[in-house]
Amino acid sequence: MSYNILSQDLLEDNSHLYKHCRRPVLHWSFRFPNILKEIKHFDADVLCLQEVQEDHYGTEIRPSLESLGYHCEYKMRTGRKPDGCAICFKHSKFSLLSVNPVEFYRRDVPLLDRDNVGLVLLLQPKIPSAASPAICVANTHLLYNPRRGDIKLTQLAMLLAEISSVAHQKDGSFCPIVMCGDFNSVPGSPLYSFIKEGKLNYEGLAIGKVSGQEQSSRGQRILSIPIWPPNLGISQNCVYEVQQVPKVEKPDGDLTQPELDKTEVLVTAEKLSSNLQHHFSLSSVYSHYLPDTGIPEVTTCHSRSAVTVDYIFYSAEKEGVAEQPGAEVALVGGLKLLARLSLLTEQDLWTVNGLPNENNSSDHLPLLAKFRLEL
Questions:
Q1: What's a single GO MF annotation on this record (predicted)?
Q2: 174 domain residue, yes or no
Q3: 182, CA 20 to 30 Å: which among 75, 86, 101, 374?
């Protein structure tokens, strides 16, 4: 399950978004029992929660989830922000191999001055067969600001680099990956397409167009090439760069001067490419449109907007690959999507007075997927 549960502090700081709501449904004392009831009802093995407020996490959320059999890991936002991301899993189903928090704020990188975070866990399924691969589960809440697509893409690259590092197996392949969260980007946007396609040429792209949250991008800067500075230590392939230390041991040297010059030129050309890539094959659990009508699904709905910004992405063989004879072996250790909880349309939600309401106590809907792990 991926669920942005709406931090109470953020609700109160942005009360203009909830003018449509009856006052009582906005109180935490009303909302939390409802959210807990939903979590109990759906009974997921793994929860990825966003906007988990630190004080509520300590006093209510974590104790309640532990009593339901979950082990909880939490990463608070930096800069004294009151909320963060949690990944909770049933300890009857998984054991914890590693916990890897990601902070998107970097004092040494002026671009990265926002306090968003991510969390990446490596879990080992508890199954009788000893051959089960680990599963990498990532959770994040990217920057909201629709006009700062440069920051959003860099935050995403940092999360992908950490996933690469955590999910990397001895044989060079990746273990199965599930990447959840509130990406503050809509389906079909450049950021969304980058996640799904594994590549993005961002040359000439306005920074306000990256997430697709707003239509107009008049007078906006276009993305610089490269988007983030080299000292971030993340390549255009969204992996951690091995810092190249120049070799100076041998006085005669292995390379002649002209060869060295040529190497320099190649490095510079690579750095100035406007192509981003990542090496995962990620699919979205949801298709974002109702099959019969083509009406958009939404994952969040309040006074200002009703859109999809929450996702569950998972590593899967792309359709068409498995059709080729003999390609079935490629799915070994993959995730097969078996079922998902239906989302609703904006119209559906306004018939119950939008979100939050008497029954749904966040301004987001929970996303829920059931997978089979191919061994």
A1: 3'-5'-RNA exonuclease activity
A2: yes
A3: 374
